[in-house]
Amino acid sequence: MRPTGGGLSDTEAIAASLEEGTAFEVVFERHYGRIYGYLAKRVGPSAAEDLASDVFAVAFQQRATFHPDATSAGPWLYGIAANLAKRHYRSLSRHRRAIGRAGGGSAVWLDPDLEGRIDAQRRATELNKVLSRLRSQDREVLLLFALADLSYDEIGLALSIPVGTVRSRLSRTRSRLRNLLPPEGQQGSSTVDKPEGGA
Amino acid sequence: MADQYADLRSVFKGLVVDYSPPAEQIAEARSRLHKEIAGERSTRRPQRLWRVPVAAVAAVVVAFVVITSILPWGRAPADAYLLEIAQATRVLPATELPDGAYLYTESGGLVLGGSTVPEGYEFEDVVYLISLQTESWIQGGFQLLRTTLDDPVFFDEKAERVFYEAGLAEIAGFGESVETAHDGFAPPADPAQWSADVDTLRSQLEAEAELAQNGLPLEQRILDVAFDLLLPESQASPTQRATVIEAVASLDVETAKLVDGNVTVSVSYRDEYYGSVVEIWTLDEAGYLVGTTLVTLDGSSDGAIPAGTAFTDITWSVPAIVAEAGLIP
């Protein structure tokens, strides 16, 4: 990605950062907001603060693995973010291990203002139930598609899978979510805007 | 071209909101990145921890046979026991869970617990060992969990007195058995996520461990990820368990074979709070994790936990199949 008004592209900035680390700041300034937004939808705005910060620390440490042919660092960063979000839920704490809770946790952070909205609560409960039963790789594809608005190509890059696999996973996921899909002709945007702190 | 899966985005409509990072959070994250950049001394990647490739492990096993045939008291290479278990596990039949049946697992032992003490006492918090037993019934994403906590064991008489005087026992629910049911269970050993190829799996374990920011050494984190996959409730197939054990076998760990055929894997590391820690995992001959023990050799830095304390000591039973949630095999 090359910003309007000139400056280094992501690829150029990451390549330059191998010699001079501060060049990586370009990547941070360009992508931090969107990565935070994606993580906030998955784990909540509070937990997203640490995780989003972790994403860029991990990305900086692993920047030598960034593919030089990639046009944007976005998918790569979303891939790291998806892994960190997954880890957030799959805690490795020995206490959790001891009490037998190897899984659990909601796959997305639902709007706290759902309280009192019976229909939305019902849909939210059903959605989390379906999400929890999806295969983890199907769930990651769905969340990058629905919450991060990535294209099939970008999801493929983020998760290092072929585009055909992205499509087949979305197809499989749709069949699992069919009861939650809106009737034909009633599709809209995936989310509503809410400022930080509104939760 | 219209997006054929656009309707999937609509599922989240009205349920998930968009957030923007507050300015102070952006500044904090930027500051952390600056520290990361400043702390980097070179762009070299850390050395890979895996000691030798699989082919070389085979060579080590051959060398072991030769050496031990010459030296009758020669010590076995650390990974030989693990490769033996992996080999035995790989040929086991997979456990099929019949429709409507539940996977039953059970664990029990000691874990470290702690409580915050109300104002007015001489301690701010107290630590103790809790004896707990858990039973779990899993079917798909459903899990019924029964947890029983026994009375805590204290390291210090004063702490014990404060604990009971402040009424913390009632809050913690000791002596009670609690059942919870939830739909969010996700077995960690998803075969779609973890490769059955040992080289690929090693890379996956290392990548996963690098993401874990829990302060432990990387090698320790790799073992944490690996042994999670060997938990009975993880539902890993025999092939998966064997591959995980082969991956662990190529790490620099100490192993020992017990009289019952189980094998222990142990590592030691230094922790900021627990000081020198020895961690021991026990694998059974079917490749399941059946025990884990953590011992602080130095005692905790605040003096609350004495030197030599096993602050975690858990055992797991082998999984069983039952017809109903709540039934004990």
Task: Please provide a brief summary of the model.
Chain A has 199 residues and is mostly helical. Chain A contains nine helices and one strand; from the N terminus they run αααααααααβ.
Notes on the protein architecture:
- The complex is a heterodimer of chains A (199) and B (329).
- By secondary structure, chain A is mainly alpha-helical.
- Chain A folds into two domains: 1-106, RNA polymerase sigma factor, region 2, helix turn helix motif (Rna Polymerase Sigma Factor, Chain: A), CATH 1.10.1740.10; 108-199, Winged helix-like DNA-binding domain superfamily/Winged helix DNA-binding domain (Arc Repressor Mutant, subunit A, Orthogonal Bundle).
- Chain A has helices spanning 10-17, 25-43, 45-61, 74-89, 94-98, 118-133, 136-146, 152-159, 163-176; one strand at residues 192-193.
- The two termini of chain A are 32 Å apart.
- With 329 residues, chain B is α+β, with helices and mostly antiparallel strands.
- Chains A and B meet through α2, α3, α4, α5 and α6 of A and α1, β1, α2, β2 and β3 of B.
Following the backbone from N to C, one meets helices and strands of chain B in this order, namely HEHHHEEEEHHEHHHEEEEEE
Strand share of the residues of chain A? under 5%
Largest interface (CB within 8 Å) is between: A-B, 88 and 74 residues
CATH homology group of the largest domain in chain A: RNA polymerase sigma factor, region 2, helix turn helix motif
Computed CA radius of gyration of chain A, to the nearest angstrom = 18 Å
Number of helices of chain B: 9
Distance between the termini of chain B: 56 Å
Average pLDDT for all residues of chain A = 76
Poorly predicted runs of chain B are: 42-78
CATH architecture of the largest domain in chain A: Orthogonal Bundle
Outline the biggest β-sheet of chain A: none
| Number of β-strand runs of chain A | 1
CATH topology of the largest domain in chain A: Rna Polymerase Sigma Factor, Chain: A
Number of domains of chain A: 2
What general outline of chain A do the C-alpha atoms trace? globular
Helix content of chain A: 55-70%
List the uncertain runs of chain A: 90-105, 187-199
Summed over residues and divided by their number, the pLDDT of chain B gives a mean of 79
